[in-house]
Design brief:
Fe cation binds at residues 57, 59, 101, 103. The protein is mainly β and 303 residues long. Helices cover 6% and strands 48% of the residues.
């Protein structure tokens, strides 16, 4: 079976910026350097210290995938849904025609910040008016696989790797999400779906991506965006490296549709943006339950 390695389209450093109420994020998708990478709208590497968070705010027309790397995050919405995702857990949230919710960190005993990744994913046009829904994925539900004599460890959050498949139907838009750790001397040739947009974000350490003259070392807090052509991503950590790499490799099915975004509203035309604001302000067409609603977890920050 022949494989075609993916080349590197660009490498971006995720600068720190303020977001929400006192939170700090490193944003690598959703910046002037990389505005949209269909179906991906935004990727934030989030650090939330005690007293900070994301109090009550709306969404329409998109999905969020939140992955907790350290600590725990509480969430609550205007439909009465509430819960907590802890270290290693994920939440797949579909905003659909409308949701208002809050996402707030649990306080850690040692006072340290909570950390995680949040990815915004565009919904296909025909599903933008679907009902909101949640799917929490617990760390214990995520299959794992080891390759290259244990030097490569993969959590198969969504998609497949090393002959292991994830749980199904986590999001409406097809997305692969692999949490990958490679020790010094480890190599991985990871298949990805043909034609899907694919990127890797380096959480810690560094690794070489690509093959031959295209091979490039990429360090912590950088996002590697791959060319659309090809069906394999090559990742390697040299044997002489002092540490391994921890990264996420993410791929998504491309939508053939315009992306018109204004803050948390993601639609396909300017008229739909105006409609989203009208619906939110008048508590209609998906936002009915927003009237007079306030989350319990966000009240301390809304006073």
């Amino acid at each position: 079976m022949t494989t075609n390695p993916r080349g590197i389209a660009k490498v971006l450093y995720a600068n720190e910026q303020p977001e929400g109420a006192g939170a700090v994020v490193r944003r690598s998708i959703g910046t002037p350097q990389l505005r949209n990478l269909s179906p991906f709208l935004m990727l934030d590497h989030v650090n939330i210290s005690p007293g900070a968070g994301f109090p009550d705010h709306p969404h329409r027309g998109m999905e969020t995938i939140t992955y907790v790397l350290k600590g725990a995050i509480d969430h609550e919405d205007f439909a009465g849904n509430r819960g907590t995702i802890e270290e290693g857990d994920l939440q797949f949230m579909t905003a659909g025609k409308g949701i208002v919710h809050a996402e707030m960190p649990r306080a850690n005993a040692d006072g340290s910040p909570n950390a995680g990744l949040q990815l915004w994913v565009d919904l296909p046009k025909e599903l933008k008016n679907c009902d909101a829904r949640y799917r929490d994925l617990r760390a214990s539900e995520i299959p794992k696989v080891e390759l290259d004599d244990g030097k490569v460890r993969i959590k198969v959050i969504s998609g497949q790797a090393g002959g292991v498949e994830s749980l199904k139907d986590l999001a409406y838009t097809p997305v692969w999400w692999l949490d990958i750790s490679v020790a010094p001397g480890g190599k991985l040739a990871q298949p990805v779906p043909k034609g899907w947009n694919t990127f890797a974000y380096v959480i810690s350490g560094s690794a070489s991506f690509g093959e031959g003259v295209q091979k490039r070392e990429v360090k912590q807090f950088h996002n590697v965006v791959f060319e659309r052509e090809g069906d394999v991503v090559n990742i390697e950590v040299p044997a002489e490296a002092k540490e391994g790499v921890h990264l996420v490799l993410i791929a998504g099915q491309v939508h053939d549709q315009p992306i018109v975004q204004y803050g948390p509203f993601v639609v396909t035309s300017q008229a739909e943006v105006r409609q989203a604001f009208f619906d939110y302000q008048t508590h209609s067409n998906g936002f009915e339950r927003a009237k007079n609603w306030a989350s319990e977890i966000g009240k301390s920050m809304m006073a």
